[in-house]
Amino acid sequence: MNRFFNRMVMIGGLVALLLGVGAAKNAAAAPIRISCVGDSITQGIVPNPQKNAWPVVLGRILGRGYQSINCGHSGATMLKKGDLPYWKQPEYKKAIAFHPNIVVIMLGTNDTKPWNWNKHGKDFLGDTEAMIRVFQALPTHPRVYICLPPKVVKSAYGINEKNLVAGVIPAIRKAARATHITIINIFRKLPGKMKYYDSDGVHPNIQGEAIMARIIAKVIKHGR
Which tens digits make up the pLDDT trace of 177-186? Predict the structure, then answer.
């Protein structure tokens, strides 16, 4: 009887060990989840954005160990009082519900519109810090990156580079310092040439989206 009992204990222990090993393997195999937060530059106005928008290209570059989702919403602002606050869009909830391990934020372009910046620009720094801290406080404690948006080659839709350079970018830098996160400098690294942009001079084309994806992937791979 004791011999039978000991054998059952041994078998039970072996099963538990195998289950533990299997669980560990499954945990190790779980992809790193990335929420890509942004406006139409993230959502993608390129042909077939499901294939060519930068969050999708980013996922292909990083490979099987990562899962990147596009949480861009066209026209969205960082400003809570802007004409289309990202905070109120379904993609904001989507980015949070994904339980990300990494968050990449690229907002600010639509905030340069005079009716947004002239009225509420003073709130941009605080709103940016607030969004970063929301993501940092998620249970997954994701690594958060924030991008300096791409250049505005031609002003369109009220979007302009003057407010981007003089207002949005300095505020993003301050918010990044205050929250101790890494900046991804799309503004400097994506050439401000029409060959990389749609005809409106605001939205990167397929080539531009691919360049942005490579820039972001490089930072993520180096972990800083």
Answer: 999 999 999 9
